[in-house]
Write a structure and sequence with these properties.
Organism: Bacteroides sedimenti
Pfam family, one: ABC_tran
CATH superfamily of the domain at 11-24 and 33-87 and 137-193 and 200-218: P-loop containing nucleotide triphosphate hydrolases
Bound molecules: adenosine-5'-triphosphate
CATH architecture of the domain at 11-24 and 33-87 and 137-193 and 200-218: 3-Layer(aba) Sandwich
CATH class of the domain at 11-24 and 33-87 and 137-193 and 200-218: Alpha Beta
Oligomer: single chain
Number of strands: 10
InterPro entries: AAA+_ATPase, ABC_transporter-like_ATP-bd, ABC_transporter-like_CS, ABC_Transporter_VariousFunc, P-loop_NTPase
Keywords: ATP-binding, Nucleotide-binding, Transport
Radius of gyration: 17 Å
Mean pLDDT: 97
Protein name: ATP-binding protein
CATH topology of the domain at 11-24 and 33-87 and 137-193 and 200-218: Rossmann fold
């Protein structure tokens, strides 16, 4: 189980305050959707939690562990932020086995865990004898999402998971995330510009503006669409 606690987390790039979040807790088992205009700070927020960036101030804790002071959180966390997580000169199989090895999984176990993703991979990801660098953007996105899930993490962080995916793959991954959350009680954080997908799968939605969470929206009854459409001025 995983809880995230944010305390006075701040990060600036020059004059630009990219993230400025006072106190925020994401409880175990929640699916939180992060929305906000371009440059609102979504990716920077994820990068700070994952210790990919050093904060100017404040802390991000996963289960009481300050992520920049200990490695303990890494065993229970799966994340895909962008292509830099992938290893271009490996085939997807080699990459999945490599990730599996890090978490003590045998090849056969990795193969078994890939099976539920068969429809998502649509015959285009494994068995291609092709290096990751030669895959399309959508298939790279699939490889990244699957690799974040393969060790069945208690905390899953995905930056814009629907990007580059065709409509049926978007629909499949929504089901995968919802089912995974329900079956394991994992905590899931996603960011997205797709308001419909976000409201479909996220009972809680954080609206980011200039690095601040300006609204913490309860979407358990799926009522956030209107509020978000008004904020983003969607007709
Ligand atoms: N490495 C960096 N160097 C300088 N500025 C940066 C860097 N990373 C992010 N920023 C700035 O920080 C702010 C927040 O960016 P971030 O990428 O976190 O936003 P975002 O909400 O993920 O945006 P998008 O929806 O466009 O992906 C932006 O003004 C961005 O230009």
């Amino acid at each position: 189980m995983a809880t995230i606690s944010i305390n006075n987390l701040q990060k600036s790039f020059g004059e630009k305050r990219a993230v400025d979040i006072e106190n925020y807790t994401i409880n175990e088992g929640e699916i939180l959707g992060l929305v906000g205009n371009n440059g609102a700070g979504k990716t920077t927020f994820f990068r700070l939690i994952l210790d990919l960036l050093k904060a100017d101030n404040g802390t991000a804790h996963i289960n009481e562990i300050n992520t920049c002071e200990s490695e303990e959180w890494k065993n229970i966390t799966g994340a895909f932020i962008d292509d830099s997580f992938l290893i271009d000169y490996l085939t997807p199989e080699e990459y999945f086995y490599f990730i599996g090895k890090m978490y003590g999984l045998k090849k056969e176990e990795v193969d078994e865990r890939l099976q539920p993703f068969e429809r998502f991979m649509n015959g285009e990801v494994v068995g291609q004898k092709k290096y990751i660098r030669n895959y399309s953007a959508g298939n790279k996105q699939k490889i990244g999402i699957i690799s974040a899930l393969i060790h069945q993490p208690q905390l899953l962080i995905l930056d814009e998971p629907f990007n580059f995916l065709d409509p049926s793959s978007q629909s499949i991954i929504k089901h995968v995330l919802r089912d995974y959350n329900q079956q394991t009680g994992a905590t899931i954080l996603i960011s997205s510009h797709n308001l419909n997908h976000t409201t479909d799968i996220c009972p809680r939605i954080a609206l980011l503006e200039n690095g601040k969470i300006i609204r913490d929206i309860n979407n358990t009854d799926n009522s956030a669409v209107k509020e978000l459409e008004d904020y983003f001025n969607v007709d």
